[in-house]
Amino acid sequence: MPGKTIGNALLLILTLVIACTWAFPIYWAIVTSIKPEQDVVNKTTLFPDVFNFSAYYYALFETKLSTWYLNSIVTSVTVTVVVILISVMCAYALSQIVFPGRKLLYGIILASFMVPSQALVISQFVLMHKLNLINTWGGIILPQLIVPVVVIVYKQFFDSVPKELREAAKLDGCGEFQILFKLYLPLNWGITTALAIITYIMAWNAFLWPFLVTNSDDMMTITVGITQTRDAFGVKYARDMAVAILAAMPVAVAYLLFQKRVTQALMLSSGIKG
Amino acid sequence: MIAPFLIAYATVFAYPVYKMFALSFTDAPLVGEGQWVGFDNYIRLFHQKLFYTSVWNTGYFVVLTVIPNTLIGLGLALMVVRLKGWMQSLILVLFFIPYILPVSVVTQIWKWVLDQQFGIAQFIIEAFTGGRVSVFRDPIWAMPMVALVTVWWTNGFNLLLFIAGLRNIPHDYYEAAMLDGATRWQCFKRITWPLIWPVTALVLTLQLILQLKIFDQVYLLTEGGPFNSTYVLLQLVYREAFRSNHGGLGSAVAVILFVIIVVVSVLQYQLLRVRER
Predict the structure, then answer these.
(1) Any keyword Transmembrane helix (chain A) (predicted)?
(2) N or C: where does chain B have the smaller number of CB atoms within 10 Å of the terminal CB?
């Protein structure tokens, strides 16, 4: 049917146009960042006449960007590793070990979905203050360690592992930790990568909590730090955009490398199995 | 084995939840002890104009984002799901990539795009209004623009859920309908819409709860201004607790937000269950 082919082609073009418009602000930010500062405001061209990376040089070497990078990397990697570790252990126990209060505990974890972490910032701040953790990596990390959805997703996956495997391992004399780390975790390696990447992206992107718990330039994570530079720069659009792009780079790369895993994790955590 | 999680859970989650309620009945500063004052904080809030402004603005923002975001997500999903192969992957990436950006990057980009003097979007604004508008300094434009930025930022996730939902609809249904001579619109109304409804309901729920918690974008784009036209509940929490050093009063606002979110979640859950039967 020729009519259908033309219709499909039109639809494709329309979708492509909308998609390009949608992504345009990102493209525009990139283009701006590689223009010389005077061209940014004088020549509104869709493509740079000259490629100029001075904004990146400035951002990397004349601001505290490298310090913020370090803070972001340390905190988000730690958050990711600890979240996965404690959640996987908790989920394994909930799924495989019979202990009193198991159902109740699972119910409590399910219910904590409803608690908006943003509403807890005051009491968490008070707590971090008592523990002397304001302006420290620990202070940034600790409140981000509770991600109930990771426990729940893991539990569902562990529930569906055949019971015979566990019994066989027990007969071979394996302890619970061995069964978890040598059997259950490798069996669910795919979901572990997915959850780890999404946790890492969320931790890297966290704004409110790191913003509240840090007030010294040297302790800020990159997402907080870059919002503080505006005044120092004056209005320098190319620099602003270069900084923004550098800040987004570690998540953008993680996403582009692991697209499938990212989408899988998002669907699992929202209750649709991918 | 559950000990590490439990310890963390109790310390940085359960205890703060309890503490939030406890603090809201005291006149505590941000850090330090306070006197028990009963419901004073709540009564004070109900006499404060800024509290009502914040409730109103939060509601306004929810209206501006939740339904448009859901409809746009569904619309885009219907377009994208018909495409095939690498073209579909490419387009999906273009739509999805804003979602993974940090909020500060998103706001930085949009401040530049909407910049009054040099922003490229001002060409469009000029075409409609005949002049440039400093959108984040204008009480009428500010909130809709924050909503626009939010929809742009978060839509990728909804799109993804809708695409997953659409892919789950068996192809035979459409083929059978086509054989019976159904038009595209009839197919959508009779097959797609009823079958995609559970996902739609899910997206609406997630959106509603998410957008009630708005703070970051507003703070970074407008700081609640101009003339408090974008002041929202979490910002009131931030202001009372961290700026004015009223930990107790700030906690009371947090409790109210918490209660609103729990009520909304429970209501939605019940509504969805009724629908499913």
Answers:
(1) yes
(2) C
The whole-model pTM stands at 0.92
Q: Please tell me the predicted confidence (pLDDT) of residue A51.
A: 85
Cβ contact, residue pair B255, A119, below 8 Å: yes
Angstrom distance (rounded) from CA A241 to CA A250: 16
Separation of alpha carbons B165 and B77, rounded Å: 9
Say if CB A248 and CB A184 are below 8 A apart: no
> How many other CB atoms sit within 10 Å of the CB of residue A109?
22
Angle at B123 (CA atoms; ends B119, B127), nearest 5 degrees? 150
Q: Is A178 on the interface with B (CB under 8 A)?
A: no
DSSP-based helix, strand, coil % in chain B, nearest 5: 75, 0, 25
| Closest C-alpha among B84, B157, B211, B250 to residue A125 | B250
Chain B closest-CA separation from residue A265 CA (Å):
11
Distance, CA of B78 to CA of B199 (rounded, Å): 13
How close is the nearest chain B Cα to the Cα of A185, in Å? 14
What does the pLDDT look like over B219-274, one tens digit per residue? 999 988 888 899 999 999 999 999 999 999 999 999 999 999 999 888 877 777 66
- Report yes or no: A267 and A152 within 8 Å, Cβ to Cβ: no
Instruction: Pick B101's closest partner by Cβ from A115, A121, A248.
Output: A248
Taken as a whole, chain A contains a residue count of: 274
B109–A92 CB contact, under 8 Å: no
